[in-house]
Each structure stands twice: as structure tokens, then as C-alpha cells.
Design brief:
Number of domains: 3
EC number: 4.2.1.9
GO molecular function, one term: dihydroxy-acid dehydratase activity
Distance between the termini: 46 Å
Radius of gyration: 24 Å
Strand order of the largest sheet: 10-11-15-14-13-12-16-17
Oligomer: single chain
Largest sheet: 8 strands, mixed
Strand content: 5-15%
Family: Belongs to the IlvD/Edd family.
Enzyme class: lyase
Shape: globular
Keywords: Iron, Iron-sulfur, Lyase, Metal-binding
Bound molecules: FE2/S2 (inorganic) cluster
């Protein structure tokens, strides 16, 4: 591949000549680089091609990426078919249930790894292979900042399994069976038995959890190949998408189609629309905020809420509905959803194919299916997520209204407060805990700083004694997150968090709290002078083991949920505006 000339005749190195190691002599740097890589058997012809880097996030600790070797092989095939040279390289991989204290704590580290390894190594385009919850946002954040031609390849969802004649899949059913076990509806033998049935293959969670949500968001943003969000991990469709991804990456290197041309305000607006219409994970809004932040845009959560009032949930998938990801794929995948949403989308947004979203949708066939509803006959009349504000959350909070109990969405109750996760673990199942079904469970100090890393602990279990009495849902409030696979009347991302001294820190057991989803409000019904007294006596928790290393950086730089929990120094110094712009 010959080097490119810019308009003002500056020669931009390409391929192996990009980003030479600094030895003070560029000719020698290239000579040395070629000498070393020839040790792996490459010819000069191969080394003179367009180079596509493939980020390999395969890891024994990440079964959600268990098909990475096959995907890499298929991407390489696509790159070679298009005349390029594919070189794979590793970055951090984050498996959701294998990361302590929580995968979110590591997302920004992975994004930094992604950005810097894209920058440091010679490549004309990059394919990001990701799937498990935090990997796709981390990769998109890093690639957005690096800004070379990029395609995101999703690993794909796992297959569903079967347990005693019932179809099951991770991880909505994991929570359902665990709830039944806690409520003594199933015994020890059955919980052990179902543990082997819930995950039937490698791949990401089989419901509309965070991984599936981020896959759909990627396609809606135009950074995933059209049709690339939903093929399950172990299918031929997934491998074909991988091959096409490799081919397209070479084409993008040729045309210079960089993320800044794709990840525009219109693309983010489309993605917000899709997040609402798929009944997507509440984590999706945090990750989208972080990715948009890298491009210089803040998400206007009030305007997002107005979008929610006009964007119904169309996808009948767990946890909001009944189907699984493989069913959505058979129903035409995200493209069926996008076709239904067409009047609400910016059809002129560009995709990785170089064509607009509208042009891509023109080719999508319509057929009868029962997974994606029409706008006239939705699963839920409003968007999946509602944005709340009030005296308990001055900077906001969210609720996944499509997965909540309709009878609890207008509710006033007595607070039963847990100071942190340890306190919750210690007292929740105490038979003497003073708690009733219409109380509101409050968990403090699981925010971005408090835990740290804002763990998915916002899905507080129903206290055992109530679960055994048949209680299935209660209003639960925290400054943490919740898995996209969970359901319930759960208020999350309360901002500012308790560890920063937000009003959540002042709540005491016995206080009254009022939730009104219709009014988009969450209020602590305590007199201001009493709150002032509590504020004066408040002692904030000190971060533990934060004297050095990544943990020190994390505590110093982490932003709140309304800024995507990105590190402050990773966002651009000057922001360009707010998204969505349409409702301003
Ligand atoms: Fe990896 Fe759910 S645990 S996607």
C-alpha cells in the first residue's frame, strides 16, 4: 500500500510504515520492524498491504468470547479476500462474572488499553472483537478516541438451554431460579441441576441484557456491520458477519472512513432511540454517555426522557418480554426493529459500509414474525427507561419502567436503609429485620466511588422472609447499577452518589420516600432543617487501598453516571454540544 497524500501534499505513512518506533532514524526503524516481523515468515508482498489490526479479546476467563479464535479466522479471510493483511493482537478482556470488584471498575482501563494499542501499532483499520457487557463500550470508547477506521465485531449471544422441559437462558433465568431457591420454591438439588442448563454454549447472555443492548446500540450507531448485532455466537451467520467485517475494514482503510464520520450526534440519537425501543439495559445509557463523551458530546437526560415518551418498546425479549436473542435474530435482528422505527430515525446517518442507515434499511425484507412488534401494537407504550429527578436525586436517577411492576410505579413508602453492600449482606435475611412488602429498600455506597466501580448490586434481593411469603417485587433504590438481565421496580444511578455526600447519604430507616414514574420524580420526604442537621454530622467513607496504582487513578478521575463514569482526563478538554438536539 502506498502512503497517502493529504490535500496540502503532506505524506501520511500507511501500513507497516505507520507509527515507527523512535530510534532517531526512520529508515532504520522500518528496516528493523520488517526484519523482526519477517521472523514470523511474512513476505515483502504481504507486508506492503493495507494492514487491518484485529483485537483479540479471547480469554479463558471470558466464555462470552469463547468463539474468538473462529471469529479471528473469519475476519482474516475477509481481509485477505479484499487484498489486505490481517494482524491480530491482544488487549484486556473482561468477563462479567470473573471481575472483582466489578467489571465496570475495569471498563476504562480496557478503553485505555484499546486506544493506546491502536495508536502504538501500525494498522490502517481495526476490527474490535467484543461482546461481554463492558467490552463493547470499552472498545468503542478507545476506538472513538484513537479515530482510525474501525468496525466493531460482536461475539454474539449464547444458545438457550432446557431445564425439565422449560427453555432457559442466562441470565434472567439465573435470577429467576435463584429467587425461587431463596423463596424455597425449589430445593438444593434442583438449583444445582439448573446451574448446568442455563448457559448452553459460548457467547453472551441470551436475553436483552447489557451485552445484547450494546450489540444493538453498536449496529444503531452504524459502527457494527448491518445485521451484525444478533447472530448467535456459534452460527454460520456470525462467521459470515465476521468475514464481511474483515472485508469492510480494508475498504474503510482505503476510503478513510473514520469513527468521527460515523459516531455523529445523529448516530447517537438513533442509538438512544434503539435503546428505548429494545427495552435495553439501563447500563446502555451509562455506556452511550461515555462513548458520546469521547466524541465531545454530553447526553441530555431530560431530552432523552422526552424521547422515551414517544418511543415504545417493540422487542418482546426477556427481561421485559418473553423471547431470547436467537429468536430476535430469526425475526430479522435489529434491522427489523430499525425498519419499524424508521420514521423516528436519522436515516442519513453513515454506517461502516459507507452507505447511510436509510440505504441499508431499503434492502431489508419484511416478513411475518412475533418478536418485534409494530409501533401501533407495542410491548410497552413508552421507552424502556425513564429519567427521574427529585430531592433524593438532584442530578438524576433512572428506572427501567418496562421491567417494573406497574402497581409500584406510583408508590410512597417507609425506607429500610442499608449503609453499604456488607450491611446488606449482614442484615437483609435477618428474621428480625423490620421490613414489610410496601417498604422501600435503600442501599447506599454502591456508586462509582462508593463500591468502587458502581457494581450491579442495585437489584437488591427481596428479604428472605418476604420472598417466602410470596413477595416478588418491591421498590428498591441505590446509587449502583443493575444487570440488564434483571427486572423489578428498581431505581438506579442515583446522582450524586452517597459516597460524595448526595442526599442518598442522608436517608435513614423510617424516612418516607415517594416514587412517581408518571411525574418522573423521586423524593425524600424529610424536612430541610432535619436534612441540614444530618448533613452536618455526615462522615463520608474513605476509599480503601487507594494510595497507588490504578485504584488511585480511579478514585481521582472517575465521573458520575451522568458523565458515563468515564475518567475525566479521557474526555476531550472542550465539549461540542449535547445530544439529542432534536428536542432542545
Ligand atoms: Fe458476558 Fe452476560 S456475562 S454477556
Amino acid at each position: 500500500m502506498t502512503d497517502k497524500k493529504t490535500d496540502d501534499a503532506v505524506v501520511v505513512p500507511t501500513g507497516l510504515r505507520k507509527g515507527l518506533t523512535n530510534y532517531g532514524d526512520t529508515g532504520f526503524s522500518l528496516f528493523l520492524r520488517k526484519a523482526f516481523i519477517k521472523g514470523a515468515g511474512y513476505t515483502d508482498d504481504a507486508l506492503d498491504r493495507t494492514i487491518v489490526g484485529i483485537i483479540n479479546t479471547g480469554s479463558g476467563y471470558n466464555p462470552c468470547h469463547g468463539n474468538a479464535p473462529q471469529l479471528i479466522e473469519a475476519v482474516k479471510r475477509g481481509v485477505m479476500l479484499a487484498g489486505g493483511l490481517a494482524i491480530d493482537f491482544p488487549t484486556i478482556s473482561i468477563g462479567e462474572s470473573f471481575s472483582t470488584p466489578t467489571s465496570m471498575y475495569l471498563r476504562n482501563l480496557m478503553s485505555m488499553d484499546t486506544e493506546e494499542m491502536i495508536r502504538a501499532q501500525p494498522m490502517d483499520a481495526v476490527v474490535l472483537i467484543g461482546g461481554c457487557d463492558k467490552t463493547v463500550p470499552a472498545q468503542l470508547m478507545g476506538a472513538a478516541s484513537a479515530n482510525i477506521p474501525t468496525v466493531q465485531l460482536i461475539t454474539g449471544s449464547m444458545l438457550t438451554g432446557g431445564h425439565r422441559g422449560v427453555r432457559v437462558g442466562a441470565c434472567t433465568d439465573c435470577r429467576r431460579y435463584w429467587g425461587q431457591y431463596r423463596g424455597q420454591e425449589i430445593d438444593e438439588a434442583e438449583i444445582v441441576e439448573v446451574n448446568s442448563k442455563l448457559v448452553a454454549s459460548v457467547g453472551t447472555c441470551s436475553v436483552m441484557g447489557t451485552a445484547s443492548t450494546m450489540a444493538c446500540i453498536g449496529e444503531a450507531l452504524g459502527i457494527v456491520m448491518p445485521g451484525g448485532a444478533t447472530p448467535p455466537a456459534v452460527t454460520s451467520d456470525r462467521m459470515r458477519i465476521a468475514e464481511l467485517t474483515g472485508k469492510q475494514a480494508v475498504e474503510m482503510a482505503r476510503t478513510g472512513l473514520t469513527p468521527d464520520k460515523i459516531l455523529t450526534p445523529k448516530a447517537f440519537e438513533n442509538a438512544l432511540r434503539v435503546l428505548l425501543a429494545i427495552g435495553g439495559s439501563t447500563n446502555g445509557i451509562v455506556h452511550l454517555t461515555a462513548i458520546a463523551g469521547r466524541m465531545g458530546y454530553d447526553i441530555d437526560l431530560e431530552a432523552f426522557d422526552r424521547m422515551s415518551r414517544e418511543t415504545p418498546v417493540l422487542v418482546d425479549l426477556k427481561p421485559s418480554g418473553q423471547h431470547y436473542m436467537e429468536d430476535l435474530h430469526r425475526a430479522g435482528g435489529l434491522q427489523t426493529v430499525l425498519r419499524e422505527l424508521r420514521p423516528l430515525l436519522h436515516l442519513d446517518a453513515l454506517t461502516v459500509t459507507g452507505r447511510t442507515l436509510g440505504e441499508e434499511l431499503d434492502d431489508v425484507p419484511a416478513f411475518t414474525q412475533d418478536v418485534v412488534r409494530s409501533v401501533k401494537d407495542p410491548i410497552y407504550p413508552y421507552g424502556g427507561i425513564a429519567f427521574l429527578r427529585g430531592s433524593l436525586a438532584p442530578e438524576g436517577a433512572i428506572i427501567k419502567q418496562s421491567a417494573a411492576d406497574a402497581t409500584l410505579m406510583e408508590h410512597e413508602g417507609r425506607a429500610v436503609v442499608f449503609e453499604n453492600s456488607e450491611d446488606l449482606a449482614r442484615r437483609l435475611d435477618d428474621p428480625d429485620l423490620d421490613v414489610n412488602a410496601d417498604d422501600i429498600l435503600v442501599l447506599k455506597n454502591i456508586g462509582p466511588i462508593g463500591a468502587p466501580g458502581m457494581p450491579e448490586a442495585g437489584y437488591l434481593p427481596i428479604p428472605k422472609k418476604l420472598a417466602r411469603a410470596g413477595v416478588k417485587d418491591m421498590v428498591r433504590i441505590s446509587d449502583g447499577r443493575m444487570s440488564g438481565t434483571a427486572a423489578g421496580t428498581i431505581v438506579l444511578h442515583v446522582t450524586p452518589e452517597a459516597a460524595l455526600g448526595g442526599p442518598l447519604a442522608l436517608v435513614q430507616s423510617g424516612d418516607r420516600i415517594r416514587l412517581s414514574v408518571s411525574e418522573r420524580s423521586i423524593d425524600l420526604l424529610v424536612a430541610e432543617d432535619e436534612l441540614e442537621r444530618r448533613r452536618a454530622a455526615l462522615v463520608l467513607p474513605t476509599p480503601k487501598n487507594a494510595e497507588r496504582g490504578y485504584r488511585k487513578l480511579f478514585f481521582e478521575q472517575i465521573t458520575q453516571a451522568d458523565k458515563g463514569c468515564d475518567f475525566d482526563f479521557l474526555r476531550p478538554p472542550t465539549m461540542q454540544g449535547r445530544i439529542p438536539t432534536r428536542n432542545d
